Amino acid sequence: MELKKIGVVGCGLMGHGIVQVAAQAGFEVVVVETAQDFLDKGLGRIEKSLAKLAQKSVEKGKATAEDAEATRAAAWGRITGSLDRADLADCDLVAEAIIEDLEIKKQLFAELGKLCKPETILASNTSSFPVTEMAEASGRPERFVGLHFFNPVQLMRLVEVVRTDKTDADVFETARGFGKAVGKAPVACKDTPGFVVNRLLVPYMAQALLMLERGDATKEDIDAAMQFGCGYPMGPMTLTDYVGLDTTLAILEGWVEKHPDEPAFVIPQILRDKVAEGKLGRKTGEGFYKWDGDKKS
Ligand SMILES: NC(=O)c1ccc[n+]([C@@H]2O[C@H](COP(=O)([O-])OP(=O)(O)OC[C@H]3O[C@@H](n4cnc5c(N)ncnc54)[C@H](O)[C@@H]3O)[C@@H](O)[C@H]2O)c1
Questions:
Q1: Taking 90 as the threshold, does the pLDDT of residue 100 lie above it?
Q2: Whole-prediction pTM
Q3: What kind and span of H or E run contains 228?
Q4: Rg of the chain (C-alpha set)
Q5: Which CATH number fits domain 199-287: 1.10.3720.10, 1.10.1040.10, 3.40.50.2000, 3.80.10.10?
Q6: Residue 170 is inside which H or E element, if any?
Q7: Residue 32 belongs to what H/E stretch?
Q8: 247 and 282 in contact (C-beta within 8 Å)?
Q9: Pocket lining: 12 vs ligand 1, CB cutoff 6 Å
């Protein structure tokens, strides 16, 4: 199936990035938000980001000022913002990037399943919920995939393309092709908790917190070990502060509730305590470290 028009629901952190990379790849994109100010904020981010890219390509000698401006204007011109979901009806693929709330996502997909043309592929950017549940809610599970982009979408190469037991092979291949078309390296995964990356990463973060809790090593030494021993750009304690302690806890709680017998899914008490104290990581100025912008102590 050939994709021409892409719909995106939600123009927040992830949604605005998906809109931008799709428009840059030549797709016509319509993005739907719940309120004008959210839409303006998301579109404003895209406008700034496209302008910055144009400026950089001129500075690096990759394009003349005229060409860079034409590329920027063409990408920007492919994007339409809307507050009306009916504008998604004729899209070939609709990617959802709204808040991480399963009931709200299911409601949205039930509505999209009714209003979109029969061929439309529906996709969720969820990080932690079963794709199968949303696929069933949409009433068109055979035309449903997970398309899990990474933050910031403009820079991160990976997109996990998630298929359920009911996803049509053609739909899956089309979604994977979309990932490639927007410049990503798609990996295929079944509908399992956390897909590939978070299934490995979140339990690793939890194990690091358990080490701290037991007093095996300090947070600085745990971080240094993984940075210098494994070549990771940051250690697990710093990573947890970046991801957000509340987000990490919410993911683990969801998994433990659904899969109580999976030994990799454990919730360190230290994580619950920090969240209860409101120490949620970099975004609140303190998690395992104290934060002043990007500076930690
Ligand atoms: N933040 C990350 O690092 C990250 C990474 C991968 C995946 N995700 C997933 O992507 C999704 C979006 O996360 P985010 O970080 O961009 O959140 P965000 O809060 O930055 O953006 C969500 C946007 O969706 C809008 N919205 C909410 N309900 C809506 C509705 N019913 N219709 C239209 N718009 C609606 C909100 O106004 C907001 O602008 C979540 O499912 C999240 O789990 C997040």
A1: no
A2: 0.93
A3: helix 219-230
A4: 20
A5: 1.10.1040.10
A6: helix 169-181
A7: strand 28-32
A8: no
A9: yes
What confidence tens digit (pLDDT) does each residue in 264-294 have? 999 999 999 999 999 999 999 999 999 998 8
Query: Which residue's CA is minimally distant from atom 9 of ligand 1?
Result: 126
Instruction: Kindly report, residue by residue over 161-177, the tens digit of the pLDDT.
Output: 999 999 999 999 999 99
What per-residue confidence (pLDDT) applies to 259? 94
**Rounded distance, CA 129 to CA 194, Å?**
8
Out of 82, 83, 99, mutate this one to test ligand 1's pocket (max ligand atoms within 8 Å of CB): namely: 99
Distance CA 180, CA 285 (A): 37
Host H or E run for residue 9: strand 5-9
CB of 237 closer than 6 angstroms to any ligand 1 atom: no
* Residues 6+ away with beta carbon under 8 Å from 59: none
Would you list the DSSP string of 195-221?
Answer: TTHHHHHHHHHHHHHHHHHHTSS-HHH
What stretch(es) of the chain map to CATH 1.10.1040.10?
199-287
What's the pLDDT score for residue 36?
98
Q: Work out the average pLDDT over 64-82.
A: 97
> Residue 248: CB within 6 Å of ligand 1?
no
Indicate the average pLDDT of the chain: 97
**Residues 76, 20: Cα–Cα separation, whole Å:** 8
Cα-to-centroid distance, 68 and ligand 1 (Å): 30
Dihedral of CA atoms 55, 56, 59, 64 in degrees, nearest 10, equals -60
